[in-house]
Automatic annotation (TrEMBL):
It catalyses: D-glucose 6-phosphate + UDP-alpha-D-glucose = alpha,alpha-trehalose 6-phosphate + UDP + H(+). It is an enzyme of class 2 (transferase). InterPro entries: Glyco_trans_20, HAD-like_sf, HAD-SF_hydro_IIB, HAD_sf, Trehalose_OtsA, Trehalose_PPase. It comes from the Archaea. This is Alpha,alpha-trehalose-phosphate synthase. Transmembrane segments: none annotated. Keywords: Glycosyltransferase, Transferase. Residues 728-754 are annotated as: Disordered. NCBIfam families: HAD-SF-IIB (TIGR01484), PRK14501.1 (NF011071), T6PP (TIGR00685), trehalose_OtsA (TIGR02400).
Length: 754
């Protein structure tokens, strides 16, 4: 296993400085505790912010911190108070955090914060580059560093880079509000593997990259330029053993003992989170209030332990929330409290590990009702400590942990009555049922614990790298490219078959906009000018369009995928007798689908009809395309026509027509010394199929193909053709130069003897 570089905003250890002395604490939050529990079992280095402010010029202090952290396999990135204000409090926690948790009314879109976010991501990039070794696996974590994968990719093109998002990825409808949505997605796609906690977050991400960047995916594999990015889900686990064992430890037992003396045998409900508006603490308190009000028999018999861990205290919403909670607790305690009984025991601090476990172990019911939560490890930790079986977890359906913890009492956290009912259900549940439910969840948590989670991610990252390497094996290598050009240069006759859309020119939103560029015209002219070449543009376009675009060039054509062919200098002809009567029957159906799909339209050619959906909503478009294909198959069962899927088009045409059949007209003409065919979509596969093994067939794009090689993108086509003609022109210049020299020599010495 290669060395693992973990990169996150916060290191697992936070440093504080008091009276000139440093002290080290475990950082709060699931990322730090979760990843912190396994990273030392790897050869690893964790790069992140140590939580302490060091003056810019105080190199001595920085070196000391660096030294102290290196013993913990950590490497610091120092952030100034200005960075923390604008990047951490600003962009991370005042823009991304609320937006990604569906609190879009809290999100601020401040350009300055965004600029500092970019700058801090660059600082992290520099920090990684300082320590990275060639074979390191780099694993970037969370929303603070979403631009980093792409920054690293630019500097280290061959590095293995993974990214994991610990918070929800929101639906496209929310994500699209972000002014810098494109940059964020591009930043993430610098990775080889992007991971999420749940399937919902994953599909939201795929939908955003599809709608915003136009990238399709196949089972979570996204082709981005010449790379494949894999997207997958990995629900984060906990260090199960540590929690289960700690629950039995003497230190924890002692803490429980102390607490029991305070609470007697009252039922204990635990509410325990970072103080964050996403956690739904006020609603929870209100539900508890309603329970005591509506069911007075619980008064005096149940206590709510409310632990709120201070978090992001510089941010206004967090300060307001703190005040709201303080007031609610005061109100409930004032309303129902007696000299013997305080309904809510409220703690506003960070708890050391033993106290935390003692609280879990002590609680009869855990009330975990976030309004949104990426995962929520505390719910899992609570279950792990229930070694004797007893204890009920009430869990919000909005937590990422909910799909895995289905045996909990699942609630909608906004439904106060449902939360109140859930507390009652939990308190009334038989011990047998509690144990049974916990046993099932414990088994699951034990199996997919934090070590498994990390190993799973790293293995998938390795797989993604292998896939990447395999795909790139089919890409035309520099050596094969040289051979292709040498073969081109040494051949006395050559057949060159070139698809048009997606090959000679990029796609445009409307087909009529994809006219040939001057670069493409120029290059075709050069190819056609070489006497050894026969150049055939082989397209699905109608013959009139091709003719009008290329009338100045000496080319041959295949139009409508093979309905029409035209030898250079000759007239158009139809190699097969075809009928177009069927079009009348098909046309209304295609029009109906165009009407039902905004952005789609129908194109009619002489012997085929095409349904285009490039401009339609991508999801609706591909759904309708599937439905249309099904309908067409029924409708065309007795007609001699075929339905063919191309790039964002469904084409209906005569069954025997395809580019391969049409190309035979040229391939069979003579034994060509050099054949090259380039195409990008499904229709070009018929062409590749009729070519020989040693011919140069090239598929544009990285998807699987019958072609011998893949060219990464459409942008690579003209440069390749240019290299071919350059090599010929050079050779011609060489020949001319030689004969010029020979002529000069002859004019001096007289002609050579025969
Ligand atoms: O670093 P802070 O700003 O103090 O915040 C603490 C952490 O909060 C977030 O935790 C998330 O990660 C957990 C583990 O994957 C997950 O269970 C939880 O639902 C998330 O909210 C944040 O993502 C971390 O980066 C912070 O360090
Ligand atoms: O006083 C505390 C409060 C929380 N934690 C840890 O902080 C993490 C909180 O993670 P969670 O996923 O529940 O929520 P987050 O705070 O990351 O949103 C858990 O592993 C807790 O064990 C802790 O060690 N002491």
């Amino acid at each position: 296993m290669n060395r693992l570089l973990i990169v996150s905003n916060r290191l697992p250890i936070s440093i504080t400085k008091q009276k000139g002395e440093y002290s080290f604490q475990r950082s709060a939050g699931g990322l730090a505790t979760g990843v912190g529990s396994f990273y030392k079992s790897y050869e690893s280095l964790w790069i992140g912010w140590p939580g302490v402010n060091v003056r810019k010029n105080n190199q001595k202090e920085k070196d000391e911190i660096c030294e102290a952290l290196s013993a913990e396999q950590c490497h610091p990135v120092f952030l100034s108070p200005y960075d923390i204000r604008n990047y951490y409090d600003g962009f991370c926690n005042n823009t991304i955090w609320p937006l990604f948790h569906y609190f879009n009314h809290f999100a601020e879109y401040d350009k300055h914060h965004w600029n500092v976010y970019k700058k801090v991501n660059e600082s992290f990039c520099e920090a990684v580059l300082e320590v990275a070794r060639p074979d390191d696996t780099i694993w970037v974590h969370d929303y603070h560093l979403m631009l980093l994968p792409q920054m690293l990719r630019e500097e280290l093109p061959d590095a293995a880079i993974g990214f994991f998002l610990h918070i929800p990825f929101p639906s496209y409808e929310i994500f699209r509000l972000l002014p810098w949505r494109k940059e964020i997605l591009e930043g993430l796609l610098g990775s080889d593997l992007v991971g999420f906690h749940t399937y919902d977050y994953l599909r939201h991400f795929l939908s955003s990259i599809r709608r915003i960047l136009g990238y399709e995916h196949t089972l979570g594999d996204v082709t981005v330029g010449n790379r494949t990015v894999r997207v997958d889900m990995f629900p984060m686990g906990i260090d199960y053993q540590q929690f289960a064992e700690a629950a039995e430890s003497p230190a924890v037992q002692e803490e429980i003992q102390k607490a029991r003396e305070q609470y007697g045998d009252r039922t204990i409900v635990l509410s325990f989170d970072r103080l964050d508006y996403t956690k739904g603490i006020p609603l929870r308190l209100e539900a508890f209030d309603t329970l005591l009000e509506k069911k007075p028999e619980y008064q005096g018999n149940v206590s709510l332990i409310l632990v709120a861990v201070p978090s992001r205290t510089a941010i206004e919403q967090y300060q307001a929330l703190k005040q709201q909670i303080d007031e609610l607790v005061g109100r409930i305690n004032g309303k129902y409290g007696t000299t013997e009984w305080l309904p809510v025991r409220y703690f506003y601090n960070y708890l050391p590990f033993e106290v935390l476990v003692a609280n879990y172990k002590l609680a009869d019911v855990a009330l975990v009702t976030p309004l949104r939560d990426g995962m929520n490890l505390m719910a899992k930790e609570f279950v792990a400590t229930k070694t004797e079986g007893k204890g009920v977890l009430i869990l919000s359906e909005m937590a990422g942990a909910a799909p895995e913890l289905g045996e909990a009492v699942i609630v909608n956290p906004s439904d106060r009555d449902a939360v109140m009912d859930a507390i009652e259900t939990a308190m009334a549940m038989s011990e047998e049922e509690q144990s049974e439910r916990n046993r099932i969840m414990q088994k699951r948590l034990q199996r997919y614990d934090i070590t498994h989670w990390a190993a799973d991610f790293i293995n998938r990252l390795d797989d993604a790298r292998l896939l990447q390497e395999k795909r790139s094996e089919r890409i035309l290598t520099a050596e094969m490219r040289r051979r292709l050009i040498a073969d081109y240069g040494s051949s006395a006759n050559r057949l060159i078959l070139l698809d048009y859309d997606g090959t000679l020119v990029p796609f445009a939103a409307k087909p009529e906009k994809a006219t040939p560029s001057s670069a493409a015209m120029d290059q075709l002219a050069r190819l056609a000018a070489e006497p050894e070449n026969e150049v055939v543009v082989i397209s699905g376009r109608d013959r009139h369009t091709l003719e009008s675009w290329f009338k100045t060039l000496d080319l041959s054509f295949i139009a409508e995928h093979g309905v029409w062919i035209k030898e250079r200098g000759q007239a158009w002809m139809m190699p097969e007798a075809l009928s177009s009567e069927w079009k009348e029957e098909i046309f209304p159906l295609l029009e109906l689908y165009a009407d039902r799909t905004p952005g789609a339209f129908v194109e009619e050619k002489e012997y085929s009809v095409v349904w285009h959906y490039r401009k339609a909503d991508p999801v609706l478009g591909s759904l309708r395309a599937k439905e249309l294909k099904d309908d067409l198959l029924h409708l065309t069962a007795n007609l001699n026509i075929a339905v063919m899927e191309g790039n964002k088009v469904i084409e209906v045409k005569n069954a025997m027509i395809n580019k391969g059949r049409a190309a035979l007209h040229w391939t069979a003409k003579k034994p060509w010394e050099f054949i090259m065919a380039i195409g990008d979509d499904r229709t070009d596969e018929d062409l590749f199929e009729v070519l020989g093994e040693s011919d140069y067939s090239l598929k544009v794009g990285q998807t699987a193909s019958r072609a011998r090689f893949n060219l990464p993108s459409q942008r690579d086509v003209l440069p390749l053709l240019r290299e071919c003609t350059n090599c010929d022109e050079q050779r011609e210049r060489g020949k001319a130069h030689k004969s010029e020299k020979k002529e000069k020599k002859e004019s001096v010495t007289g002609s050579a003897p025969l």
